[in-house]
Specification:
30 helices; 0% strand; Serine Threonine Protein Phosphatase 5, Tetratricopeptide repeat; mainly alpha; 626 residues; single chain
Length: 626
C-alpha cells in the first residue's frame, strides 16, 4: 500500500504543479508535439511522397496555382471545400511556391491543436487528464502523418479544437463576444469540412442545458444564440457570394454533399468511399462526371445545387426502397468509425508506416488505444456538467458522418473529443491502480465493453487489396518523380499482391513509365491488354489514343478518342483531342469538335488560337493532344 500511495502522491504532485503553472504544461506539450512533427518532416523529405502529390493534395496544389494565375473566381460553384486551396494560394503569393514550407506551418498549427486538446481535457476532467490528453495528441500517429500532406486535415482538427475551447470559454464567461468567436471558429472550420456546422447547434443545445432555462428564451437568444449564429455565417458569406457570382445559384459552401451522400447510400455502397456507377475517384473527374451523369439521367442542364439535390434524391430513394439494407449499412459504418483500422482515402498511413522508416513506424498512440479508453471516458461524462460538451459534440459529429462514408480522415475531428475522454479514463485507471479501488470503474468500463470489442475486432477488409493499393499509388508517385523503373516495380508488386486492386489510373501511370523508358510499343500493347479488363474505360481509350497520336498513328488515335467520347459521361479533353486529330487528317470534323471544346475551355487562349487558325486554313495541324 505504501508503493501505491507513493504512486498516487507522485501523480497528484505532478498534477498540482501543473495546475499552479498551466502555461508550463502547455509549453511542454507544444514543444514536444512540434519536435515530433519536425523530426517526421525531416524524414518525410527523403521519402518519394514528398514532392509527388496524390488525390486531394494534387487538386489543392493545382487549384492554388489556378487561383494565382487566373484570379479568385472559379468557373462554377465550389465542388470541394474552398479554404485550403485559397490558403495555399495566399501562402504561395507571400512566400513563393514552396509547398514544403507549408508542412512546417502545419506542424506548428498541429502542435497548437495538441495544446487546445490538452486544455479541453484539463477544463472538463482535471489537470492530470489534461496532461495525458496533451501527450496523447502529441504522439497520435494520424495527426503527425497529416502534417506532411498537402491536405486540409490539420486545419480541420485545429479548427474543431479551437471551436470547442471557445465554447467552453463562452460557457464560463457568458459574454456575447465569446459566443460570437465560438461561432466564427465553427464557420471557418466548415469551409474545410462542412459537417462541422452541425456542431454549432449541438453546442447551443448544451449552452441551453447549462444556462438557457435559467436566463429565459429571450435573454438566451440575444446573448448566446444570435451572436453564435452571426459568427458562423460570417466566414461562410464569401463562399456563398462566390458561388452565386460564378453560377447564379445558391450554394452555401460547396455542392459535393449530394453525391457524397449517394456514395454512402446506393446498391454498391460498402460503408467506405467506394465510387459507384463507374464514376472516377480522381477529384477533378469526380466533379465533371458526377455532374454530367446527373444531367444525362435528368435529361436537362442542372445548376450545381440541382446536381447535389439529384444525387441526394437518389440516395434517399435507395434508403426508401431498401430500409433493411440501409440499416445494416449504417451499422457497418458505425463499426468502421469505431474500429482500429485507419481506412485509407488519400494516403494509406499503415502502408507508409510499414514500408518506409520514419517516426510513424514507432509504437505511437493509435485509434486502438484512443477508441478503447475513449469509449470508457465518454461514460464518465455528464451532459449537464462541463464534461457534457465533448460528449455531445462527439456523438453529433459521429452522427454527421454515418449518412455518408467512413475513412481515416473523416474520423480525425472526433479525436478532439475522444482523446480528452480517453485521458479521463486513463487518469481514473492510474488512480485506481494506485489505490487498488477498482469498483468505481466497473460501470463505465462495462458499459464501454461493446465499443471496445468493435474497436479491437478485425474488420471485414481485404488487407492484401489495401497493400496492393499502396503499391498502385507508388506507381504514380515514382512516375511523377521520373523514377520510371521503380514505378514499374511498384506496379508489378501491386499486380502480384492483389490484381483486382489495379485500377485504370494505375494502368495509365505504368504505361506512361513504359513510354518514358523508350518503350512505346510495349505501352500500346499494355493498354490493349488492360482494355480487355476494363472495356468500358473512357480514360484508357483516351490515353491510348494520345500515345497513338504521338507515334504518328493518327487514324487509330482518332478511333480511340471517339470510343472514349462515347463512354465518358462528361467528356471534355476528348473534344480537344478529336479536334487536333481530325485537323491533322484534314477532316472538316475538326471544326465541329473544336467549337464544342471552345465552349468547355473558354479560358484556353492557345486552343482558341488553334481553332481560329483552323477556321482560316483547314489542315493546320501543329497541335498537341492532351
Amino acid at each position: 500500500m505504501e508503493k501505491a500511495g507513493w504512486r498516487n502522491n507522485a501523480w497528484g504532485r505532478l498534477a498540482a504543479a501543473w495546475s499552479a503553472r498551466p502555461w508550463a504544461g502547455a509549453v511542454v506539450v507544444f514543444l514536444l508535439a512540434l519536435a515530433v512533427r519536425l523530426v517526421f518532416l525531416a524524414q518525410w523529405a527523403h521519402l518519394p511522397y514528398i514532392d509527388a502529390f496524390s488525390a486531394d493534395a494534387w487538386v489543392h496544389e493545382k487549384w492554388a496555382l489556378e487561383i494565382l494565375n487566373n484570379g479568385l473566381l472559379r468557373h462554377t460553384a465550389f465542388y470541394q471545400s474552398p479554404f485550403y486551396p485559397y490558403f495555399l494560394a495566399g501562402f504561395y503569393k507571400v512566400f513563393g511556391h514552396h509547398p514544403h514550407w507549408v508542412f512546417g506551418l502545419q506542424a506548428v498549427v498541429d502542435a497548437a491543436g495538441c495544446v487546445l486538446i490538452m486544455q479541453l481535457a484539463r477544463r472538463c476532467f482535471g489537470a492530470r487528464a489534461g496532461l495525458l490528453a496533451g501527450f496523447a495528441a502529441a504522439f497520435y500517429r494520424p495527426f503527425i502523418f497529416s502534417t506532411g500532406l498537402l491536405t486540409k486535415e490539420t486545419f480541420v482538427v485545429f479548427g474543431t479544437a479551437l471551436f470547442t475551447w471557445l465554447a467552453l470559454r463562452a460557457d464560463e464567461r457568458g459574454r456575447r463576444a465569446d459566443f460570437f468567436f465560438c461561432g466564427l471558429a465553427a464557420g471557418w472550420t466548415a469551409l474545410s469540412r462542412s459537417n462541422i456546422l452541425l456542431l454549432a447547434p449541438a453546442a447551443l443545445f448544451w449552452f441551453w442545458l447549462r444556462r438557457g432555462r435559467a436566463d429565459g428564451p429571450g435573454v438566451f437568444l440575444k446573448n448566446a444564440a444570435l451572436p453564435l449564429l452571426l459568427g458562423v455565417l460570417l466566414p461562410l458569406a464569401p463562399a456563398a457570394v462566390h458561388n452565386y457570382a460564378a453560377s447564379r445559384d445558391f450554394v452555401l459552401v460547396n455542392y459535393t454533399g449530394g453525391f457524397t451522400f449517394f456514395i454512402g447510400n446506393n446498391p454498391e455502397s460498402d460503408g467506405t468511399a467506394n465510387f459507384p456507377l463507374g464514376i472516377n475517384s480522381d477529384p477533378l473527374l469526380e466533379e465533371s462526371q458526377s455532374a454530367g451523369m446527373a444531367e444525362k439521367l435528368a435529361g436537362k442542364k442542372l445548376k450545381p445545387s440541382e446536381v447535389s439535390a439529384f444525387w441526394l434524391r437518389r440516395g434517399l430513394g435507395f434508403i426508401a426502397e431498401h430500409p433493411a439494407k440501409w440499416a445494416g449499412l449504417t451499422a457497418l459504418k458505425f463499426w468502421f468509425f469505431w474500429n482500429w483500422y485507419e481506412i485509407p482515402d488519400n494516403y494509406d498511413l499503415q502502408f507508409v508506416a510499414e514500408h518506409f522508416k520514419s517516426v510513424l513506424s514507432l509504437p505511437l498512440v493509435s485509434f486502438a488505444l484512443a477508441g478503447c479508453l475513449g469509449a470508457a471516458g465518454l461514460f464518465l461524462c455528464r451532459a449537464r456538467e462541463i464534461s457534457g460538451l465533448p460528449l455531445l459534440l462527439f456523438w453529433t459529429y459521429l452522427a454527421s458522418v454515418l449518412p455518408f462514408a467512413v475513412s481515416d480522415r473523416y474520423r480525425y475531428p472526433a479525436l478532439v473529443f475522444l482523446l480528452p475522454a480517453a485521458a479521463a479514463a486513463a487518469d481514473r485507471l492510474i488512480t485506481a491502480a494506485g489505490s487498488r479501488q477498482w469498483r468505481p470503474l466497473w460501470k463505465p468500463f462495462l458499459a464501454a465493453a461493446p465499443l471496445m470489442l468493435l474497436c479491437l475486432a478485425r474488420p471485414p477488409f481485404n488487407f492484401r487489396f489495401g497493400e496492393a493499393a499502396g503499391w498502385t499509388q507508388l506507381t504514380a508517385v515514382y512516375g511523377a518523380r521520373g523514377e520510371h523503373g521503380k514505378a514499374l516495380e511498384a506496379f508489378d508488386r501491386a499486380l502480384g499482391t492483389a490484381p483486382e486492386s489495379v485500377d485504370e489510373a494505375a494502368v495509365i501511370n505504368a504505361a506512361a513509365s513504359l513510354e518514358a523508358l523508350g518503350r512505346p510499343g510495349d505501352a500500346l500493347a499494355f493498354y490493349g491488354r488492360w482494355l480487355e479488363v476494363y472495356p468500358g474505360s473512357s480514360m484508357l481509350y483516351n490515353n491510348s489514343g494520345v500515345l497513338l497520336y504521338r507515334q504518328g498513328r493518327i487514324k487509330e488515335g482518332v478511333k480511340m478518342f471517339e470510343k472514349s467520347l462515347a463512354l465518358d459521361p462528361a467528356p471534355k479533353n476528348q473534344y480537344k483531342n478529336l479536334f487536333y486529330g481530325y485537323a491533322k487528317l484534314g477532316d472538316k470534323k475538326a471544326l465541329q469538335y473544336g467549337e464544342t471544346a471552345l465552349a468547355l475551355f473558354p479560358a484556353d487562349a492557345e486552343f482558341a488560337r488553334a481553332v481560329s487558325a483552323q477556321r482560316k486554313k483547314r489542315g493546320n495541324s501543329n497541335f498537341q493532344v492532351k
